[in-house]
Amino acid sequence: MSDSTETKSKTDYLRDVASQLKEMRHYAQTNTETLSSHWLAFDAGEYKDKVNAERFDALLNKQGKLLDDFDKAIQDIEIEINHSEQES
């Protein structure tokens, strides 16, 4: 094994983090779509069940907040990357 390890620059590390957050957001969006189909089945579909519909509605609201938070974090990191690139 080599003792030399290459350390990434902060900008490169931020790019990696932004990429990972985008992937996580993609999967969160897929989960939101799945939750929506379950909510619809309980709310207005074949399994009309108010309790479960409300449960899935609450989950959808939380998942929507998570998606918003992912978007904000990605945007902030991309702004920081752009500022860093302009400075160099």
Write the layout of secondary structure elements.
Layout: H1 10-43, H2 50-87
Helix pairs in contact: 1-2
Query: What are the segments in which pLDDT stays under 50 over at least 5 consecutive residues?
Result: none
Please tally the helical runs, counting DSSP H or I stretches of 4 or more residues: 2
**Helical amount among residues, as a percent range?**
over 70%
Structural class: mainly alpha
Distance between the termini: 33 Å
Characterize the largest beta sheet: strand count, sense, and whether it forms a barrel: none
| Strand composition percent | under 5%
Oligomer: single chain
Radius of gyration: 20 Å
| Number of domains as seen in the coordinates | 1
Query: What's the count of strands?
Result: 0
Mean pLDDT: 94
The sequence of SSEs as H and E is HH
The gross shape turns out to be: elongated
